[in-house]
Amino acid sequence: MQIGVRALDECLSLQKKSKPLIYCISNSLLLKDLAECIMAYNGIPVFFSSLISDNANNKDIASLLVSLEDLSEEKIQDIEKSIRIARRRKMPIILDLIGEENSFIKKETALSIINRYNINVVIGSINEFKAIINNVIEKKEDNSRIDRFRDNIEVRVGFRNFSKANNIIVVVKSEEYYLTDGYSEFFVDREINRESFNLFEAIKLEYMLAALISVGVASAGTSEEKFISVLVAIMTMAVSEKIVVQKNLKKDSILNKEYLIDEIKDVNSDKLNKLSKIDYLFVR
């Protein structure tokens, strides 16, 4: 399935017009790259040091992006305060499970946030989701390998049920990107080999997907528009990765980050339409 050029253009044009403010709560080491990625996708970043306050103007609020890196008791309290304010103001909330899989406190925090608040989008790898979706994903001895679950019906049903039960858009980062709202499923081909996949993992580029999604949902209006904006953000990430790999750039983490951000900045509807590959499934 391909989204029409007109729909892609409308989504991207809306972001350029609205230039939404994205409130980020994340690892301090990632903030600079998050900021560059958000700005490349026509958003405006506001960081943890500028925590949302009750006195902020509604017109300045767009979306809240929360990643679960480097959690502490104080930070968890600040995250929950921000989420409560965001809920009162009907701001979309994006939760990135990055790094969650190996930490009990991160698992408990993720479950608490998902169960207590209305989160719009949850993003993570298969192993990160494995920690919070019980009995859905079989334990794998080699967690470093690329996980493929397209043909595993039980796993996909688990993700769909999790999405429906919590009214959450689920985004899974794997050898291909997976998106579901519990009813529709999309597989977006990344067209990268194992070497490139490991490179993106090693230099922590995949967290940038959360930045793109936060800009997309902040610019959208209806639930359907939000879902489409998430899909377009995933397409943007996949196509940008593909172009970077095709250019055979040097394996330098700084260079790769800069080039990937440049590709995100240069994305347009024609490029997405020509270079993205999407498989779509609808289930009741």
Automatic annotation (TrEMBL):
Pfam families: HK
Catalytic reaction(s) noted: 5-(2-hydroxyethyl)-4-methylthiazole + ATP = 4-methyl-5-(2-phosphooxyethyl)-thiazole + ADP + H(+)
Pathway the protein contributes to: Cofactor biosynthesis; thiamine diphosphate biosynthesis; 4-methyl-5-(2-phosphoethyl)-thiazole from 5-(2-hydroxyethyl)-4-methylthiazole: step 1/1
Any one GO BP annotation for this protein: thiamine biosynthetic process
Gene Ontology MF term list: ATP binding; hydroxyethylthiazole kinase activity; magnesium ion binding
Needed co-factor(s): Mg(2+)
Superkingdom as given in the UniProt entry: Bacteria
SUPFAM superfamilies for the chain: Ribokinase-like
Enzyme class, spelled out: transferase
EC number: 2.7.1.50
Keywords: ATP-binding, Kinase, Magnesium, Metal-binding, Nucleotide-binding, Thiamine biosynthesis, Transferase
Protein name, entry field: hydroxyethylthiazole kinase
Source organism per UniProt: Clostridium sartagoforme
